[in-house]
TrEMBL record:
Biochemical pathway: Carbohydrate degradation; glycolysis; D-glyceraldehyde 3-phosphate and glycerone phosphate from D-glucose: step 4/4
Name of the protein: Fructose-bisphosphate aldolase
Entry keyword Thylakoid: no
Subcellular location: Plastid, Chloroplast
Any one annotated GO CC term: chloroplast
Catalyzed reactions per annotation: beta-D-fructose 1,6-bisphosphate = D-glyceraldehyde 3-phosphate + dihydroxyacetone phosphate
One Pfam family from the record: Glycolytic
NCBIfam families per the UniProt record, alphabetical: FrucBisAld_I
Organism per entry: Salix purpurea (Purple osier willow)
Length: 337
């Protein structure tokens, strides 16, 4: 057992297990200010701090959230923010039995020397930022990098993505944060499911190669993969059973059983599709907790229902709870629609 996670090793294992607890998953609400602005624009709201605060307050105060949600990923602004009633968002989450997490990457920029691909920034100063986030109450972290199938992916882009994730994971563990390792393989493209499977195998092989090289403790990480699906523009669609078959085959081939939890992103799938796919994956036993870390597939209806109106807050919260409960059942393999 490689334990180089400093003095935090036991706590990291405990945090990861708490997040990967039966019937629960992660609410991703860590949209950057730019992305949050797009979501607010879709309901005709301006991208002001007050509007972001109102929306995030709605999310963290959903009654009973902790029954289905074990962790919430926050953007830096929210980690330091209070609700509209003046309580720290982090304290509200802890009272709800939801572990606060923090997006620590600094976003994507063009990768020089590649085929129009990108890489993820944020390693500079990451150790001191992580220590500050821990002080502020965060117990896990997220770093999202992307791999594009239509643009390659080039060997360079895959290597850069894997190395960045591994450095981030090591730094997070040394500062007490459970790293969520997220190499998102984008849905865009006309390719079939076999091609996604091939690329995912390559990506996860490299990610685990560099995680091991960086002495990351596998018992204290969580993964956030894309499900293996056909490209968004592919004419051949896949059933939840096919998505589950390919995705589980990938996980069994590439992910050591020491990893406690696999928390999928929704990546542009519809709310129901994301639930059905997760449910299909939980029809047979696996060595890991197989669950969700959805943003759009938990929030879409909630955001629309709210529409920025105070009188709709309760109705919007109910729609979020419906999605959270559906995905909780899917985590247990018991969703029936
Ligand atoms: P989606 O579920 O909307 O893909 O977002 C999850 C996420 O956090 C992407 O990094």
């Amino acid at each position: 057992l490689t334990v180089r996670a400093g003095s935090y090793a036991d706590e990291l294992v405990k945090t990861a297990k708490t997040i990967a607890s039966p019937g629960r998953g992660i609410l991703a609400m860590d949209e950057s200010n730019a992305t949050c602005g797009k979501r607010l624009a879709s309901i005709g709201l301006e991208n002001t701090e007050a509007n972001r605060q109102a929306y995030r307050t709605l999310l963290v105060t959903v009654p009973g959230l902790g029954n289905y949600v074990s962790g919430a990923i926050l953007f830096e602004e929210t980690l330091y923010q209070s609700t509209v009633d003046g309580k720290k968002m982090v304290d509200v989450l802890v009272e709800q039995k939801v572990v606060p997490g923090i997006k620590v990457d600094k976003g994507l920029v063009p990768l020089a020397g590649s085929n129009d691909e990108s890489w993820c920034q944020g390693l500079d100063g990451l150790a001191s930022r992580s220590a500050a986030y821990y002080q502020q109450g965060a117990r896990f972290a997220k770093w999202r990098t992307v791999v594009s199938i239509p643009n390659g992916p080039s060997a360079l882009a895959v290597k850069e993505a894997a190395w960045g994730l591994a450095r981030y994971a090591a730094i997070s563990q040394e500062n007490g944060l459970v790293p969520i390792v997220e190499p998102e393989i984008l849905l865009d493209g006309e390719h079939g499911i076999e091609r996604t499977f091939e690329v995912a195998q390559k990506v996860w092989a490299e990610v685990f190669y560099y995680l091991a090289e960086n002495n990351v403790m596998f018992e204290g990480i969580l993964l956030k993969p894309s499900m293996v699906t056909p490209g968004a523009e592919c004419k051949d669609r896949a059933t939840p059973e096919q998505v589950a078959e390919y995705t589980l085959k990938l996980l069994h081939r590439r992910i050591p059983p020491a990893v406690p939890g696999i928390m999928f992103l929704s990546g542009g799938q519809s709310e129901v599709e994301a639930t059905l796919n997760l449910n299909a994956m939980n029809q047979s036993p696996t060595p890991w907790h197989v669950s969700f870390s959805y943003a759009r597939a938990l929030q879409n209806t909630c955001l629309k229902t709210w529409g920025g109106r105070p009188e709709n807050v309760q109705a919007a919260q109910e729609t979020l709870l419906i999605r959270a409960k559906a995905n909780s059942l899917a985590q247990l393999g018991k969703y029936t629609g």
